[in-house]
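Action item from last week, closing it out:
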Amino acid sequence: MKSNKEHKILQPKYCDKFRCNPIKCEESCCERWKIIIDKNTYKKYINSENEVIKKIVEKGLSRNEKSMNGDDFAIVNLNSEMMCPFLNQHNLCEIFINMGENSLSKTCKSYPRAIVLMEDEIERGLELSCSVAAELALLNDKGIELEEIRDIIEFDDLYVVSPLTKDLEQVEMIKEIRTQIINILQTRSIKLSERLEFIGYFLNEIVSDIDFSRKYNEESLSKIKEVNILHDVEKLKSTKKEFQFKNNYQFHHLNTILSMKFKEGDSVSFFSKRYIECLMQVLDVFSEVKDKNLENHYKINYEKYLKPYLEEKSYILENYLVNHVFIYSSELFNLNNIWNSYLKLCVIYGLLKLNLIGLATYHKGMNDDLALKLIQSLTKTFIQDKTYWQSVIKYLEKEKLVELNKLITLYVD
């Protein structure tokens, strides 16, 4: 059923500029995914009388045995080349050709849009596993700006997620926490790694003081709103002096976490082809270095090949982290996992730097095209792999890296 109701929408300003652009697209969104199909679309496809569609559906669709609801009712069986079977020899969609755009699944209509519904308010952004979206969001030197607009959303056509909590005061509290996290990430007077560290102190000192099991009150909300980032930078620096340690295991931990993707996560057949290209070059850089020299090799190459680029264009990784916090904010709304969400953010930043250092070393420098290729393809390969991230959290717990003063070893400059 179509809706003509307008909703208030909070979104990054880049959203309205996004258009699917096959010419600029560097990697098809119709390959190397675990593609889910909603129940209504599944029925439409299996009941189609179109001969082309009927033939594809015979082997191209399966019921999802792990389905949680009507949105993930079925799955697309990728072909031997890990491509969607509905793509023809010209890489055009047979659903679109034979049944029309309206017959596309929710997955195809939604991606790369990420949409969250909170009561009557919508938040939406773009997933940066799409190369067109990544370029649009990351190369803006002014940073990601949010805006409020009004628009009509057709919920029947799109995947929409909602916070696990229905407590409006709780939602308001978490939204304010997220606002402060984004404000910290966009405070350019301090290095990005220090901003990420300060988020940890903020969550430790502010969020941990709030009893989420009780009714929220204005005092709790005011406490979060009163965080003064620039004023508290000096406090951060003085606190850091209490946690001086030898950081000799940055490469070791990040390399282990990266290696876990091959053992604990999705099959390598689901890895982005562009990421595999990047990874081969990264591995080539480090494979010939003796173990005892890897940490120094890692740090020296960062200083020589990557740091000059990031000092000039630090906004690229800033924009990435801001976008991640915004579009995956539903993770924050699971109050028991706020710290795990922060752990994931730190690991993502560490993995990005590890891969960027290797790539920059291989090419004797970094540029926008290389950075975008790595960030987009790593996002497609890693971000949605839930099994992998569960294993990563367990590894951090086992290695006692979940505490802030140890966690920063993953990304400190």
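Closing note: The radius of gyration is 22 Å.
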